[in-house]
Amino acid sequence: MSAAMLATARSAVLRPASRSAARTLATAAQPLASSIYLDPTRSQDPSVTTTPQDVSPELRHELESALRVDQAGELAANWIYKGQHDVLGRDPATGPLIQEMWEQEKKHLTVMNKLQLQHHVRPTLLWELARIGGYGLGAVTALMGKEAAMACTEAVETVIGEHYDDQLKALEQLPQDHPSVPLLRDVIREFRDDEVEHLDIAVEHDSQKAPAHALLSTIVGTGCKVAIELCKRF
């Protein structure tokens, strides 16, 4: 079953209001993993200041590639939502949705920037391309209409959600007794859940009614996969 089909099934059970309420209750019970990176009182905690040293070159490469791609992906996502918001921000129905998702992506990028520094990872050389390409994709699909903007979100978040799942499996080999590793995996899991929530929202708001939905989804999804592979290398 595709990620979009799974999103549709989930959405039939848990609507946006109830999803937000569930997230709020969960956060009240236990803070989100990423919150430690935004808490000045925890800025010297070993879990946010150290990186595993005694790992193989292959595993170190896996970690660096993962964080380089994640940082670039969150940068591109920010600019996608900025492009969409610049076009549709005044729409009373779509504007607030885009703004809400954009605010989450801003937090994701802030945390990814801190993770990149913590783990001594070189940012992608394609930084400017991610920014310009992301904005262009967001603005163009928004100009095609609200449904196309949501179809863009659906396609992007499908790829990113699957990518985070793959990362969680790949990073299982990191030493779990190092203080940074459980936190890193929890942050990736949290961000994966956020991206899936964005996918749900897009499906609920008529992404699949966009003109040439299948073609648009294929183009955007393929572009995301190509970008992921490029950012791993450059």
TrEMBL record:
Bias kind Polar residues: ranges: 41-54
Cofactor note: Binds 2 iron ions per subunit.
Membrane topology: Peripheral membrane protein
One of the record's GO cellular component terms: extrinsic component of mitochondrial inner membrane
Catalyzed reactions: a 5-methoxy-2-methyl-3-(all-trans-polyprenyl)benzene-1,4-diol + AH2 + O2 = a 3-demethylubiquinol + A + H2O
E.C. numbers: 1.14.99.60
InterPro entries noted in UniProt: Ferritin-like_SF (IPR009078), Ubq_synth_Coq7 (IPR011566)
GO biological process, one term: ubiquinone biosynthetic process
Residues covered by region (Disordered): 37-57
Record keywords: Iron, Membrane, Metal-binding, Mitochondrion, Mitochondrion inner membrane, Monooxygenase, Oxidoreductase, Ubiquinone biosynthesis
Subcellular location: Mitochondrion inner membrane
Transmembrane regions listed in the UniProt entry: none
Cofactor (UniProt): Fe cation
Annotated positions binding Fe cation 2: 105, 157, 195, 198
Residues that hold Fe cation 1 according to the record: 74, 105, 108, 195
UniProt pathway annotation: Cofactor biosynthesis; ubiquinone biosynthesis
One family name in Pfam for this protein: COQ7
GO molecular function: 3-demethoxyubiquinol 3-hydroxylase activity; metal ion binding; oxidoreductase activity, acting on paired donors, with incorporation or reduction of molecular oxygen, NAD(P)H as one donor, and incorporation of one atom of oxygen
Known partners and oligomeric status: Component of a multi-subunit COQ enzyme complex, composed of at least COQ3, COQ4, COQ5, COQ6, COQ7 and COQ9.
Biological function: Catalyzes the hydroxylation of 2-polyprenyl-3-methyl-6-methoxy-1,4-benzoquinol (DMQH2) during ubiquinone biosynthesis. Has also a structural role in the COQ enzyme complex, stabilizing other COQ polypeptides.
HAMAP family in the cross-refs: COQ7 (MF_01658)
Protein family membership: Belongs to the COQ7 family.
Protein name: 5-demethoxyubiquinone hydroxylase, mitochondrial
